[in-house]
Write a structure and sequence with these properties.
By secondary structure, the chain is mostly beta strands. It has one domain (3-152): Pnp Oxidase, Chain A, CATH 2.30.110.10. It has helices at residues 3-10, 58-63, 77-82, and strands at residues 15-16, 18-23, 29-34, 37-42, 45-52, 66-71, 96-98, 105-107, 112-124, 127-139, 146-148, 151-152. The chain has a 7-stranded antiparallel sheet with strand order 3-2-6-9-10-5-4. Strands 1-11-12 form a 3-stranded antiparallel sheet, with no helix packed on it. Strands 7-8 form a two-stranded antiparallel ribbon. A hairpin with a 2-residue loop joins strand 11 (146-148) and strand 12. The longest helix has 8 residues, at 3-10.
Length: 153
């Protein structure tokens, strides 16, 4: 199968939109938009996301002991776009707090979040799958931001 055909087929599957956050080796907050997130296990509580090996924050997430998954609300498309930009301070103008458990940034007004300790990483093609044990989290009753066929819903 051609890569473009694969992308077109995969694009028909609607996904939620997340911003994965953490801190780099210097303690500076880092974050990226990702829809490659899913829950993995109830015992123990595990979630996972995949990061492209060519991503600008790849080394930051490979060196970090933790990450947070911020599930965006329907009115937060601007955050999805901001955290997918390159060569900018993605946190400029973004309200967040540091989690009590890991110190990862938790964005304000998200639908929900998971705060996680990284327990494993697996190479998978041009990506690395990062698995985290959920230490904390919270949810609201907001409507989540959805992405499908190249557009936000």
């Amino acid at each position: 199968m051609e890569k473009q055909t694969f992308r077109e087929i995969a694009g028909t599957y609607p996904t939620g939109v997340t911003v994965i956050t953490g801190t780099n080796a210097e303690g500076r907050p880092v974050g990226m938009t990702a829809n490659s997130f899913t829950t993995l296990s109830l015992s123990p509580l595990l979630v996972m996301f995949a990061i492209d090996k060519s991503a600008s924050l790849f080394s930051d997430f490979m060196e970090s002991p933790s990450f947070a998954v911020n599930i965006l609300a329907s009115q937060q498309e601007h955050l999805s776009r901001q955290f997918s930009k390159k060569n900018v301070d993605r946190f400029e103008g973004v309200a967040y707090k540091k989690s009590d458990m890991t110190g990862c940034p938790i964005l304000e007004d998200v639908v929900s979040y998971f705060d996680c300790r990284i327990v494993d990483r697996h190479e998978a093609g041009d990506h690395v799958i990062v698995i985290g044990e959920v230490l904390d989290g919270a949810r609201s009753d907001q409507t989540p931001l959805i992405f499908c066929q190249g557009r936000y819903l």
